[in-house]
Amino acid sequence: MPEWVEVIIRSLAIIAGLFFISKLLGKKQLSKLSFFEYVVGITIGDIAGTLSMDTNLNLTNGIISIAIWVMIPVIISFISMKSPSFQQFIEGKPTVFIKNGKIMEENLKKEKYPLAALLEQLRKNNVHHASDVEFAILETTGELSILLKKEKQPITVGDIKTNVAPVKEPQTVIMDGKIMDEALSTTGLNRRWLKEKLDQLGVAVENVFLAQVDSYGQLTVDLYDDKVKVPEPVEKQLLLSSLKKVEADFELYALQTENTEAKNMYVRNRKKLAEMIKTLTPFLQG
Amino acid sequence: MIELTVASQVKQTLASLKSIHAGLQNLAITSTDEETKRVFHENMLISEEIINDVKSRIGELEFEEPEYKGF
Fold first, then answer.
1. Which CATH class is domain A171-232?
2. Residues of chain B with a CB closer than 8 angstroms to some CB in chain A
3. Is A144:A125 a contact under the CB 8 Å cutoff?
4. How far, in Å, CA of A134 to CA of A140, rounded?
5. Higher-pLDDT residue of B8, A133
6. How far apart are CA A248 and CA A193, in angstroms?
7. Residue A94: CB partners within 8 Å, gap ≥ 6?
8. What CATH class is the domain A95-152?
9. So what's the ipTM on this one?
10. DSSP A68
11. For chain A, which terminal residue's Cβ has fewer other Cβ atoms within 10 angstroms, N or C?
12. What was the pLDDT predicted at B1?
């Protein structure tokens, strides 16, 4: 067999092998690798590379070597899953750099981390004043995690509104003009419902590039033809405004009628409507 | 604008209430979150109570102004 044929066969086999090894090692992102895992990955790649090129090398020896380099990290990660103290031994402990708003000089020295590098990491996290930080910790992967002081934290919806309606992930029900039946059924809807909704918007399935359903069952579409205007879903807003209108109607009727019984009925129901508006507003707005 | 009788005004309100009821029912069915479903369903039931009250009031009004019956 000519040498180049052997190189082709070796290379193809090793590429296939490496593909499965990378599946086996899991989907940790490169940046999340510890130094050990990083070195292991490079070594496996180096062995595989040399093995596929150099026909003088014994294939069996190479495969055994790769197998060991793969086995050890797999075993280590398996034990780490079972034992937190072993995991700490392998990955190391995160180091606190800022505590109670004060920089821990000793810990910086211990990690051989210059102050300039700490400031750089803070800036990368959009923090330009070290005094804005309540707590910062150097993770085992080398990333800096930061907790800002309460008054420097960005505002969240929960800060302004006390009752916020829950929102679930939207489902993509049409992609590239094709109906995604699986996504439809996870939302408890079907093709007939989708057809009805599309008819209301006046578009055909074939013209829809993307359609998504939110957790309220409202459909938003993007058409192939970007010149066509599609109305935004307004059902919820309409519902809220008609609730308000009926409430106002009842208030008026209660004033107009001279029949006490009818007056009481209107007042009672106006209160019910006010209560409904209060509970439904977070769900129907936005 | 034509002066509407009380009965026909209340009938318009009834129509709005019915559409609110249908809208809530729709949202209760198509929402995926359990808590949201529950809130819509409960409010749909309240709207049913209000509809019944308004219906019986319309009956009384039609009795008082019989010429507008079936408006």
1. alpha beta
2. 6, 9-10, 13, 16-17, 19-20, 23-24, 26-27, 29-33, 35-36, 39-40, 43, 46-47, 49-50, 53-54, 57, 60
3. yes
4. 20
5. A133
6. 34
7. A137, A138, A139, A140, A145
8. alpha beta
9. 0.85
10. H
11. N
12. 42
